[in-house]
Write a structure and sequence with these properties.
Layout lengths: L3 E5 L4 H16 L4 E5 L4 H31 L15 H12 L3 E5 L14 H6 L5 E5 L5 H4 L5 E5 L4 H17 L2 E8 L1 H9 L2 H20 L6 E7 L2 H9 L4 E5 L13 H6 L7 E4 L5
Parallel strand pairs: 1-2, 3-4, 5-6, 5-8, 6-7, 8-9
Antiparallel strand pairs: 4-9
C-alpha cells in the first residue's frame, strides 16, 4: 500500500515549511501520496462569515447615516450611531433607555393600502412598549411643512389620565410653535348605538355635554387659542379624517402595561394606520 502524508497547510510560514518537508519525505519513498489539508472548522468559518456580515452591515449602516450627517453634521450636541440589536425597534428602545430620552421619532414604514401604516410594521413595533413618547412623521414631511404658518395642533380627549396628559403636552407644544389647539372628542360607534336607542334628543344632549366639557378643559389652558370638535363614528377613522387638517395630533396610550411605556390600545394602535399628519403617542401614566 502506498504511503500517504497529510500536510497541515494554512498558507503561512509554518504551513509552507510543512509542505516542503512533505515533499522531501515523499522523495525518499517513491509513490507516496500527499494530502494537503487546510483546516476550515465550522466555528472558524462561522466567525469569519459573521465578521464579514457584520462588516458589511456596519458599512451599509454608515452609508445610511451619510445623508443625516450631511443634513445635521454641523449641529452641536448631535451624534450619529450604529447600534447592533435584534430589530430596529429594540435598538431605538435600548438607546432611549440608556440615554434617558424623552422622545423617539420614526417615519412611516412598510406602508399598506392607501398609504397607511401596516400592522406589524417597524413603526408599530417602535411604538409598542417604547420607554418614552414616540412621534411618527408621515411621508413627505419636510422642512417647509414643519415651518409653515397657521399651524393647528390637535389632542384627543376622553376624560382618561392619558388624554389629560395628551392635552397638556399638545398645549405646551402649541405655545412653543405659536399654533392653535383643537380638543377632539369622538363619540364611538358603541355609544352611538346605545344613545341612539334612547332617541335623538338624548344623543344631542350627549353631544352638547361633551362639547361643554371640552370648552371647560380648553378654558384652563393659558397662552393658546383653543377650539373644540365633537365627532361621531369609529375613533381611529375619525381621527384620521381630522388629522388631514392638523399639523400634529397628540394621543395617550391606553393599553394595559407598565407605567411610562407606550402601550398601544385599541384606538392608538389603529389610529397610527389612519392618521396622515405627524402623530405623537405618549406613554401610559399612572391611574
Amino acid at each position: 500500500m502506498a504511503n500517504t502524508i497529510i500536510v497541515g497547510y494554512d498558507g503561512r510560514a509554518g504551513g509552507r515549511a510543512a509542505l516542503e518537508l512533505a515533499l522531501r519525505s515523499a522523495e525518499l519513498r517513491p509513490g507516496t501520496r500527499i494530502a494537503v489539508v487546510t483546516a476550515d472548522s465550522v466555528g472558524e468559518s462561522r466567525q469569519r462569515a459573521l465578521r464579514a456580515i457584520e462588516a458589511a452591515l456596519l458599512e451599509a449602516a454608515e452609508e445610511r447615516l451619510a445623508p443625516a450627517r450631511q443634513r445635521l453634521g454641523d449641529r452641536p450636541d448631535t451624534t450619529f450611531e450604529v447600534v447592533r440589536a435584534s430589530s430596529p425597534a429594540s435598538a431605538l428602545h435600548r438607546r432611549a433607555e440608556e440615554l434617558g430620552a424623552d422622545l423617539i421619532i420614526v417615519g412611516e414604514s412598510h406602508l399598506g393600502t392607501l398609504g397607511r401604516v401596516a400592522a406589524g410594521s417597524i413603526t408599530e413595533q417602535t411604538l409598542h412598549a417604547a420607554p418614552c413618547a414616540v412621534a411618527v412623521a408621515p411621508h413627505g414631511y419636510d422642512a417647509e411643512t414643519a415651518r409653515r404658518k397657521d399651524l393647528v395642533y390637535g389632542a384627543a380627549y376622553s376624560r382618561s389620565p392619558e388624554s389629560e396628559a395628551a392635552v397638556d403636552r399638545a398645549a405646551e407644544l402649541a405655545r412653543l410653535a405659536g399654533a392653535r389647539l383643537r380638543l377632539i372628542n369622538v363619540i364611538g360607534t358603541e355609544l352611538l348605538w346605545y344613545f341612539g336607542q334612547t332617541g335623538a334628543e338624548t344623543l344631542q344632549t350627549l353631544r352638547d355635554e361633551l362639547a361643554a366639557e371640552l370648552r371647560e378643559r380648553g378654558a384652563r389652558i393659558e397662552g393658546v387659542e383653543v377650539d373644540v370638535e365633537v365627532v361621531e363614528g369609529d375613533p381611529a377613522a375619525e381621527l384620521g379624517r381630522i388629522g388631514e387638517h392638523l399639523d400634529l395630533l397628540v394621543l395617550g396610550s391606553r393599553g394595559y402595561g407598565p407605567v411610562r411605556r407606550v402601550i398601544l390600545g385599541s384606538v392608538s394602535s389603529r389610529a397610527v394606520r389612519h392618521v396622515r399628519c405627524p402623530m405623537l403617542v405618549l406613554p401610559r401614566v399612572a391611574d
